[in-house]
Amino acid sequence: MRLIFMGPPGAGKGTQAQVVADRFGIPAISTGDIFRANVTEGTELGVEAKRYMDAGEYVPDTVTNLMVRNRIDEEDAVKGFLLDGYPRTLAQVDELDGMINYTGHRLDAVVCLAVDADELVRRLFSRAQTEGRADDTEDVIRRRQELYLEQTQPLVEVYRKRGLLCEVDGIGEVDEVTKRILDALSNVQES
Ligand code: ADP
């Protein structure tokens, strides 16, 4: 299975991505987590990414694309993967198409988690209090939502036109949402 998880910041992508990837026996690859790990380790990539992340901006495509390319080339991703937080721009969509076509595979489905704006802001503020992520301050949260609408929302239509989109209601208990996702994916034919 080659899956993409999409949805605005706060939609619960990370939580669901991990559970669903485990079910399919594929790695959940979160670009946000990889960037944060690099920031913690103080790598060159981390230093570069941090400037953008702290401001709620997207890390430049060239940097992100190369990182994803290297990650999906790893052994555990040969049989499939679930991408969480990538692609986020139209240029990243093209790049990912190239990476997948090159290996002779295709994308199986794109799960988009739908959550309304009020609930998103509520969740992000509560996460800010419990986890203390550097990019969960009010201004930065607002900027990330804005960027999502501007740069990432258009990808939903791209994947809808390709017949890959599975829209799932992201409101409710974690288990309930997982069940909706798995139900939606049960109709998907693995390539
Ligand atoms: P969230 O979706 O909750 O905002 P993530 O953990 O997915 O958070 O990502 C955190 C940050 O990492 C983003 O705000 C952005 O700066 C950077 N990032 C993650 N994925 C990408 C991507 N595909 N392209 C550019 N930047 C990214």
List key phrases describing it.
191 residues, single chain, binds adenosine-5'-diphosphate, five-stranded parallel β-sheet, alpha/beta, globular, 57% helix
Topology at a glance:
Elements: E1 2-6, H1 13-24, E2 28-30, H2 31-41, H3 44-53, H4 61-72, E3 81-84, H5 90-102, E4 109-114, H6 117-131, H7 138-161, E5 165-169, H8 174-185
Parallel strand pairs: 1-3, 1-4, 2-3, 4-5
The chain binds adenosine-5'-diphosphate.
What does this structure look like?
By secondary structure, this protein is of the alpha/beta class. It contains 8 helices and 5 strands. It has helices at residues 13-24, 31-41, 44-53, 61-72, 90-102, 117-131, 138-161, 174-185; strands spanning 2-6, 28-30, 81-84, 109-114, 165-169. It has a 5-stranded parallel β-sheet, sandwiched between helices. α1 (13-24) packs across α8. The longest helix is centred in the last third of the chain and has 24 residues, at 138-161. The model has no long low-confidence stretch (mean pLDDT 93). Adenosine-5'-diphosphate binds at residues 9, 31-32, 35, 52-53, 56-59, 64, 85-86, 88, 92, 135, 144.
Outline of the structure:
Helices cover 57% and strands 12% of the residues. The chain has 191 residues and is of the alpha/beta class. Bound molecules: adenosine-5'-diphosphate (ADP).
The radius of gyration computed from the alpha-carbon positions, rounded to a whole number of angstroms, is 16 Å
Low-confidence stretches: none
Please give the share of residues in helix. Answer: 55-70%
Overall body shape = globular
Order of strands, main sheet, comes to 2-3-1-4-5
* SSE pattern: EHEHHHEHEHHEH
**Count of DSSP strands:** 5
* Protein structure class: alpha/beta
Tally of individual helices? 8
Gap from first CA to last CA: 7 Å
Strand proportion: 5-15%
Give the mean pLDDT: 93
Oligomer: single chain
Cofactors, ions, other ligands: adenosine-5'-diphosphate
